[in-house]
Amino acid sequence: MKSLKKFALGMAVAGLSATAVAAENVKIAFIDPLSGAFAATGTNGLHQFRFAADELVNENGGVLDGQMFEMVAFDNKTSPKESLTQLQVAIDQGIRYVVQGNGSGVAHALTDAINKHNRRNPDDQLLFLNYSAVDPALTNEECNFWHFRFDAHADIKMDVLTDTIAENEDIEKVYIIGQDYSFGKAVASAAVRMLAEKRPDIEIVGNELHPIGSVQDFTPYARKIVSSGADAMITGNWGSDMLGIGKAAIENGFSGPVYTYYGAADGITAAFGETGVGSLKLVAEGGNNPPSKPEAQEYIRAFKDKYPDGNISQARITNVIQMLAMAIDEAGTATDVVKVAEALEGMEFTDSLWSDNPLVMRADDHQLIQEVHILGHVPVEAPFDFDNSGYGMQYENSVVAAGEDLPMSCEMDRP
Amino acid sequence: MSLFIVNILDGFVTGLLLFMLCSGLTLIFSMMGVLNFAHASFYMLGAYFAYQISMFTGFWVGLIVAPIIVGVMGALIERYGLRRVHQYGHVPELIFTFGLALLIEEFVQFFWGRQQVPYNPPAALDFTAFAIAGNTFPAYKVFMIFMAIGLFLVLLYILTKTRIGMTIQAALSYPETVQNLGHNVPMVFMGVFGVGTAMAGLAGVIAGPVMGTFPGMAFTLGAIVFVCIVVGGLGSLWGALVASLLIGWIQTFAASYNLRMEDLLIWLGFEKPMLIWESPWQDLWTLTLPQVGPILPYLLMVIVLVLRPQGLFGKRET
User: Fold this and answer.
1) Torsion angle, alpha carbons of B28, B31, B34, B35, to 10
2) Which CATH architecture has domain A155-288+372-399?
3) Is the ipTM of this complex over 0.90?
4) Residue ranges making up the domain that contains B249
5) Can you spell out the DSSP letters for B60-98?
6) Nearest residue in A to B212, CA atom
7) Residue B271 lies in a domain
């Protein structure tokens, strides 16, 4: 583990010396777990970033007058404290763009630190491009000018999810289960609130939290879900807790849809296999398996050639890279991040690999407004499957410009 | 009522699975005199080996071969690792097994990655055995029950009815005397360690498809296994069985019934604060039984240690 960190630092140092020769590289700090329990997710994300930067920007001649994107990896071990240390290292290296996604706790720490840093150091400012941390507060109460979010936040996803449930007349009883911490509670309260608005007749037959990461056997929970007579269940679980509750429910007789936030890729698709077909659903932005655009299919093929064990599981990563490149070109500078941020604000992005509809970076709160889908777990041919398992996720329901009319409480101070 | 029966069965499966780990550990514990922290890691190795073998030959070969590999590994570790450390006392032994547990976890992550591997029940057992009021009971769990009971009967027979069993029991209590009588006690210890780890491996093989095969599986089960042998009493097979079933049922029932602290407090005559979300006691008032479920086995251990330090079926104090 230590060696990985040293490796990352070594890479950073190597990057530093490279700048002396070709002073033009636009460096992007990737601050996410590369060791510890979530290393697999973090490493896969880094591969997607590196590949997107090479394939979508550097191959086409880079930005401005031939400056290349360069990803610099920092291992934060999913710890907010470690992230701030790594952020300082990135700042010392003169990096102006930070991407991070795993964990809203980390994102809160980073957005706060970057906001303070930028206020105190007007000559040396940074932008924070958040590609996965979904706590709604980041673009609401806690929003700031330097933070941009490319994923749909938790309430937007719940909005789409509850729309789907509301349209389904067969669903009369819903069971909500989640991990016992802030995110699990946020998902549960959003579900209760939105279902009450959209379908007051739906009965919440269960709403409970289980200890995070320490339940060995989910069978008793599955029994409760089956006995409650629920027609559908909603869970914000991730990792082994996602797999545990989903598999236990389906194997013990639950036949309705299992709506999840994180029920795909990172080993989960492979572990569900045939069991998940017809039950497992995912709410997410991004592409179909396979994606509809031929260039997106080509992109996935090329990625799989380079990283055979990887997944294009976070489609938004290409949006981050492409939109940043567009903003830098439009601003005419990569060093004055205020201009880049102003170019990103309100940007309408039509060339996403995954979406036929334009993506809009809402200027008011820096939340990307995009199409969000409910996807179902089905057999999918390689190489468009997840985890090389022969299974993937396909669109079942799509909402264009999802969450556009959700209430927003961002009051942004602009430089 | 039907849910009660289903929970009895589920708890029975969990308990039997725990027993397969505890029975080996309790013998090893009484033999070495220290906890083997790496015991649950052998359980994990069993699951991973079986997964790897099942990729090539199917589930059933893995069921037989994986525990044997784990057992041989365990025996070799005892012979060339633990036995050398043993002469320096208990603390180095403890540290050795602790290091071994970390080593095995890293080993597993190195070869199979950090994600869950798709290790699934065999197709022949992938059907519903029966259903009670909509709650289905997978055939694979019936198979687990029979495997565990079979293992218990075989162990009971060997330990109590055969000459080998008597030698083992004697060697556990009076190693010097048995040595003087001409038995090869180090060999017996190696055998016990090997068989104990093989049983943990077997538990991993059959639990992997149900509980999930991932690098954290040893950690989540490890602590519970120690609770089991302390509650049951060191070196007692019956104790291990009773304690495992007890803990299996406690965990299952605690997770199944949403008893609320609120009801208990009101029953005790307390008044619920009007603005519960601003009360300093809100965490206590909103507690439910499933939330405290995971600590109940430890509570049981503390109570047993206070009232009966040798464990429910233990014969000596440690």
Assistant:
1) 10
2) 3-Layer(aba) Sandwich (3.40)
3) no
4) 2-256+288-307
5) HHHHHHHHHHHHHHHHHHIIIIIHHHHTT-HHHHHHHHH
6) A244
7) no
d(CA B230, CA B56): 40
The type of residue at A107 is A
A-contacting residues in B 215-234 (Cβ below 8 Å)? 216, 220-221, 224
Locate CATH 3.40.50.2300 in chain A. Answer: 2-133+316-352, 155-288+372-399
- Name the residue of chain B whose CA is nearest to A253's CA: B136
Q: What percent of chain A has pLDDT over 70?
A: 94
Residues in chain B within 8 Å Cβ distance of A273: 118, 120
Tell whether B318 is covered by a domain: no
Q: How far is CA A187 from CA A192, A194, A369, in A?
A: 9, 11, 20
For tokens 């719940």, the residue is A158
Q: Which chain B residue lies closest to A247 (C-alpha atoms)?
A: B210
Interface check for A362 against chain B (CB to CB < 8 A): the answer is no
B204 touches A at CB < 8 Å: no
To probe the interface with B, which of A179, A223, A275, A388 has the most B CB atoms within 10 Å? A223
- For the domain A2-133+316-352, what is the CATH code? 3.40.50.2300
Would residue B170 count as lying in a domain? yes
pLDDT per position as a tens digit, B190-231: 998 999 999 999 999 999 988 888 888 888 788 889 899 889
Report the alpha-carbon distance of residue B195 to residue B96 in Å, rounded. Answer: 20
Per the structure, the count of domains in chain B is: 1
B134–chain A nearest CA distance, Å = 7
CB B51 within 8 A of CB B208: yes
Note if the pTM is more than 0.90: no
CATH number of the structural domain spanning residue B115: 1.10.3470
B54 inside 8 A of chain A by CB: no
Higher-scoring residue by pLDDT: B116, A137:
A137
d(CA B116, CA B212): 7
Q: Is residue B81 part of a domain?
A: yes
Q: What backbone phi and psi angles, to 5 degrees, belong to A209?
A: -120, 140
Cβ neighbour number for residue B80 with a 10 Å cutoff: 9
Looking at residue A154, its pLDDT comes to 92
Q: Could you tell me if A277 lies within 8 Å of chain B, comparing CB atoms? A: no
C-alpha–C-alpha distance, residues A83 and A73, integer Å: 12
Q: pLDDT tens for residues A158-203? A: 999 999 999 999 999 999 999 888 888 889 999 999 999 999 999 9
Q: Look-up: residue for tokens 């602590």?
A: B223
| C-alpha span between A68 and A64 (Å, rounded) | 9
CA distance A37 to A365: 32
